[in-house]
UniProtKB/TrEMBL annotation:
Gene Ontology MF terms: sucrose-phosphate synthase activity
Keyword set, alphabetical order: Glycosyltransferase, Transferase
UniProt xrefs under InterPro entries: Glyco_trans_1, HAD-like_sf, HAD_sf, SPP-like_dom, SPS, SPS_C
Swiss-Prot/TrEMBL catalytic activity: beta-D-fructose 6-phosphate + UDP-alpha-D-glucose = sucrose 6(F)-phosphate + UDP + H(+)
Name the record gives this protein: sucrose-phosphate synthase
Organism: Actinidia chinensis
UniProt family annotation: Belongs to the glycosyltransferase 1 family.
Record's signal peptide: none
Region (Disordered): 41-66
Domain Sucrose phosphatase-like: 374-586
Pfam families reported for this sequence: Glycos_transf_1 (PF00534), S6PP (PF05116)
């Protein structure tokens, strides 16, 4: 979403005052400088006046060839050198540097200026912009009579650059980058590594470099006087020059590759872990089945068992009175229930959840789908009652395997759990016919309970902790309500609201809206764009023939829910088959492709309204390999036998 400094300041102020940010989050962006190789760099320790004398073991090495090439420009080559290394481009602002040097007489008397402006053979053969800058510099040299004080080489090799830095350091010189704006400033880091104090533009990357190295000054590139003053300070004040040199050499390691990797990894480690908490291990060992939440439930059952034994022992020591026995049994049941409830709440708090943990001990047991091949029914109809025929055909196709218990079923829809429950009752189906239910377009996951008498469905609370990342909550809901109020249909003098909130079926992780006229509602990407402008992130899904809008967390969808089942229960995706229609809700594409198998039911959900609010305006074959061996298209009005043949082609069952 980019980085908005104004938004960051506002959010930081609101957080400090403990005021609600309405679902907006602090921008998560960190600037990490790249690394530079320093192992070959050796700062020069000598100077022009006091050369280190050689001996038999370590004779003095001859001067590099590039040094005489530079020295020949100067009348007095022992002066301190001001070095600039940049192409003759207008944005590098070299003309302002020459003007600042020419107008400051004390600086001219104490220092020489060296301009390394790339390589050239003939000025007339250079590009128009580069040649104009070079000619302007030559005119300024003539204007200020800088002959014998400015060097401007025609040629140099890349291997000569380290020697140029060493020469500037040997003369106790200064490096300057006067560009109008510098994205990073690699030459500043190189200069500091060779022991040169730096003067740099205050616009761009040099600000961060200066903050890290503290080896010079930042200047306004438009202010010639400011540039001259900064250079003169470093040239005149030997103690300041030595301090800046030492700071640069001391702090230059901050830009090494080792430091870069260290900073990068530490920032990554500080980020909030995105994987489910049950997969984390404090001791770094690999995750195993024993790390699952089911272990905590085994502990709870052990507590209950021990409690039962202790209470039974206490009862045996009693008087044996019938009334007291009845009272004791009632107290025992209440105490056991209290222990279970307390254990659930502790487990929920540990995982960072805020929902009430009101499920019984079956919530933590592995669902049967962990051990089965899986069939996911994700056919999108306008009404859930239309699902019945498709489900019957699929059940008939795998009747043998269903009886053996080798196949599990997952129902993935945009409907609420109450609508699914009503459908199961009306269709003569049982919750136990399915192993899991993905409801509200993927914002909720339920499992069929092992104790259907108490509650036929068990909600997966851990899934909510998995998808709540950057969920706007109430702030998002209010923004959506304001947006819905702006979508109206003018009929004469009256305005009819097209989109209205459906409070009855909205949940904490799914805000539902009714749509009166699907053709007059903006596409999904427009709503998503509007929410992002408000710094709110969500997943907008048009469903049920465009008659309903579900707004869910950005990490939630039916395909993400299937991925979650793989992550949590180890479901083998290669042994999963997803049944879909020809088209569907706006998360339809996410259900196709990948490792799992897919069966497309031709003629199902193929009406024009299903395509009205799709994410795409292009054929599905453009983005999905319809000829893939993992995708099979069943014929229109196919029977259960036809579906069994399709499953056989996928290698899912043996025909």
């Amino acid at each position: 979403d980019g980085f908005d400094p104004v938004l960051e300041r506002k959010l930081r102020a609101r957080i400090r005052r403990n005021v609600s940010c309405y679902g907006r989050f602090m921008p998560r962006m960190v600037v990490i400088p790249p690394g530079v190789e320093f192992h070959h760099i050796v700062p020069h320790e000598g100077d022009m006046d006091g050369e280190t004398e050689g001996n038999e073991d370590q004779p003095t090495s001859p001067d590099p060839p590039i040094w005489p090439e530079i020295m020949r420009f100067f009348t007095n080559p022992r002066k301190q050198m001001i070095l600039a290394l940049a192409r003759p481009d207008p944005k590098n602002n070299l003309t302002t540097l020459v003007e600042a040097f020419g107008e400051c007489r004390p600086l001219r008397e104490l220092a020489n200026l060296t301009l390394i402006m790339g390589n050239r053979d003939d000025v007339t053969e250079m590009s128009s912009t580069n040649s104009s800058v070079l000619l302007s510099i030559l005119e300024l040299i003539d204007k200020y009579d800088l002959y014998g004080q400015v060097a401007y080489l025609k040629h140099h090799k890349q291997s000569d650059v380290p020697d140029i830095y060493r020469l500037a350091a040997k003369t106790k010189g200064v490096f300057i980058n006067p560009a109008f704006i510098e994205p990073f400033g690699l030459t500043l880091i190189e200069a500091a590594a060779y022991g040169l104090p730096i003067v740099a533009t205050k616009n761009g990357g040099p600000v961060d470099i200066h903050w890290a190295l503290d080896s010079g000054f930042l200047v306004d590139p438009h202010d010639r006087q400011s540039i001259a003053d900064a250079l003169l300070k470093l040239v005149v004040d030997k103690q300041l020059w030595a301090k800046c040199r030492q700071n640069g050499l001391k702090n230059i390691h901050l830009f090494s590759w080792r430091e870069h990797c260290k900073t990068y990894l530490s920032r990554i480690a500080a980020c909030k872990l995105r994987q489910p908490w049950w997969q984390r291990s404090d001791d770094g060992n690999e995750n195993s089945e024993s790390d699952s939440p089911s272990d905590s439930w085994r502990d709870i059952q052990d507590i209950s068992l021990n409690l039962k034994f202790s209470l039974d022992g206490e009862m045996n020591e009693g008087t044996g009175n019938a009334d007291s026995s009845f009272e004791f049994e009632d107290r025992k049941r209440k105490l056991e229930k209290a222990v279970l409830t307390w254990s659930v709440q502790k487990s929920t708090q540990k995982s960072g959840l805020t929902e009430k943990a009101d499920q019984d001990s079956t919530a933590g047991k592995f669902p049967p789908l962990r051990r089965k091949n899986i069939i996911v029914i994700a056919v999108d109809f306008g009404a859930i009652s239309d699902l019945s025929e498709s489900i019957r055909k699929i059940f008939d196709a795998v009747a043998k395997e269903r009886t053996e218990g080798s196949i599990g079923f997952v129902l993935a829809t945009s409907f609420t759990l109450s609508e699914v429950q009503s459908f199961l009752i009306s269709g003569g189906l049982s919750p136990s016919d399915f192993d899991a239910f993905i409801c509200n377009s993927g914002s909720d996951i339920y499992y069929s309970s092992l104790n259907p008498e108490d509650n036929p469905f068990v909600v997966d609370l851990y899934y909510h902790s998995h998808i709540e990342y950057r969920w706007g909550g109430e702030g998002l809901r209010k923004t959506l309500i304001r947006w819905a109020g702006s979508i109206t249909d003018k009929k004469g003098e009256n305005e009819e609201q097209i989109v209205t909130e459906d409070e009855k079926i909205s949940t904490n992780y799914c805000y539902a809206f009714k749509v009166r006229s699907a053709g007059k509602v903006p596409p999904v990407k427009e709503i998503r764009k509007l929410m992002r402008i408000q710094a709110l992130r969500c997943h907008v899904i048009y469903c049920q023939n465009g008659n309903k809008i579900n707004v869910i967390p950005v990490l939630a969808s039916r395909s993400q829910a299937l991925r979650y089942l793989y992550l949590r229960w180890g479901v083998d995706l290669s042994k999963m088959v997803v049944f879909v229609g020809e088209t569907g809700d706006t998360d339809y594409e996410g259900l196709l492709g990948g490792i799992h198998k897919s069966v497309i039911l031709k003629g199902v959900c193929s009406g024009p309204t299903h395509q009205l609010h799709a994410n795409r305006t292009y054929p599905l074959s453009d983005v999905l390999p319809i000829d893939s061996p993992n995708i099979v298209q069943a014929a229109e009005k196919c029977s259960g036998a036809d579906l069994r043949t399709s499953l056989g082609k996928l290698g899912f069952i043996k025909c």
